[in-house]
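Narrative summary of target 7.
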Amino acid sequence: METLRLEFQPNSKAKILELLSSFSSDELIIVREDPFFDKNKRKLDTAYAKLKSGAEKFYSIDEVDSILDKTFSEYDS
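Modeled conformation, tokenized:
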């Protein structure tokens, strides 16, 4: 299947949906847009750039477990 993005005036929505409803579900699927797509994409692009540049530090499961144990013990008393 191909994806086509439409931008339209709100008063045209009913007409567009009426036309699209004439297609079967095998021919057409209406996919709702994620309103946070652009914001999330920017976040992911930034995180990916940090990973590629080596600016992020990776930890093993054991290292994370040790860090969490130390942090919890500080607040345990």
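DSSP finds three helices and no strands in the chain.
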